[in-house]
Amino acid sequence: MKLLAHPFFDRATSSYSYVLVEPGSGVCAVIDPVLDYDPQSGCASTFLADQIIEFIKSNDLIVEWILETHVHADHLSAARYLKTHLVCAQLGIGAQVCALQQSMAPHLSAPIASDGSQFDRLFCEGERICLGHACGRVMQTPGHTPVCVSYVFDELAFVGDAIFMPDYGSGRCDFPGGDPLQLYVSTRRLLSLPDSVRLLTGHDYAPGGRRNRFCATVAEQRLNNIHLGATVTGEEFARMRRERDATLDLPQLMPVAVPFNLVGGTLEPGTLTATDEGLAA
After folding, report:
1. What is the pLDDT of residues 170-227, one digit of tens each?
2. Longest C-alpha distance within the chain, in Å?
3. Exposed e or buried b for every residue in 56-79, given b needs 16+ CB within 10 A?
4. 92, 85 in Cβ contact below 8 A?
5. Could you say which residues of the chain have pLDDT below 70?
């Protein structure tokens, strides 16, 4: 039976979370769950996470994995909250989180363990992820951040912020450890997947007021992505990305989100912060 991906949209951050279900076994994974957070009051809300929990319980699903595609800068992760309700789930992220923890540690307001021990599993390139009767693999896709990985299951690939919908292009590269040339290589790897593979993205900003979308096929992305045309070179892409990123404001939640997500949400939101220097690319 084919794997089924159920999207959950957080309008405040234009973020997508997913529940990936293997119907034959009733086993699922949660990918990039969002914790709602109000920076003015400093209060967190579990509204979207509770929708995910309700979906899982109402469909009698068993959660084996909570998977993060990267250390998010524009929203807080609900992974730790979900683990308190879904105790068998393992929390996984790319193994490069350790290097990011080490590089950012001097810029944080309190000491942290920089060995990735806040997570249950640190994934390297090519590792397999079992989900019921199905099996996926990990692709390292850095550039947006150095930690970025994509999770490829059959004809579904969860790409985080590497690639957006064709009319929006690609993820920014001015977050800590970001690198546009790396992102170019990563996106070329993703676009070398078979035409029919659907790329499920971490955000959709709906340019022009169109309806929100969460996926496009590799074939559609190759043909229509405004940043990743077949003739675009790495140097051209990197120049475009640097010029574009220089015009963008940093996400409002970034000073709270990056430190919180860097340690897997093991601390209360706002208790660990980063300096401006630490948040620079």
Report:
1. 999 999 999 999 999 999 999 999 999 999 999 999 999 999 999 999 999 999 999 9
2. 49
3. beeeebebbbbbbbbbbbbbbbbb
4. no
5. 281
Which two three-digit tokens encode residue 87?
């105790």
Give me the pLDDT at residue 278, please.
80
| Contact predicate 246/197, CB 8 Å | no
Tally of domains in the chain:
1
Residue 273 falls inside a structural domain: no
The pLDDT of residue 281: 67
By the 8 A CB rule, do 254 and 73 touch? yes
Q: Is residue 131 part of a domain?
A: yes
pLDDT at 40: 85
Contact (CB, 8 A) for 100 and 116: no
Domain that holds residue 155: 4-257
Tokens of 190: 């993703």
Q: What is the CATH number of the domain that holds 93?
A: 3.60.15.10
Cβ(10)–Cβ(75) below 8 Å: yes
Torsion of CA 254, 259, 261, 263, to 10 degrees: 180
Residues 157, 201: Cα–Cα separation, whole Å: 9
Let me know if residue 174 belongs to a domain. Answer: yes
Q: Does some domain include residue 277?
A: no
Residue with tokens 């190759």: 222
Which own/partner pairs from 79-88 qualify as long-range (CB within 8 Å, at least 24 positions apart)? 79/30, 79/33, 79/264, 79/265, 80/264, 80/265, 80/266, 81/33, 81/35, 81/46, 81/49, 81/265, 82/30, 82/33, 82/49, 82/52, 82/53, 85/53, 86/30, 86/53, 86/56, 88/62, 88/63, 88/64
CA distance 235 to 93: 29
pTM here is 0.97
What is residue 87's predicted lDDT score, i.e. its pLDDT? 80
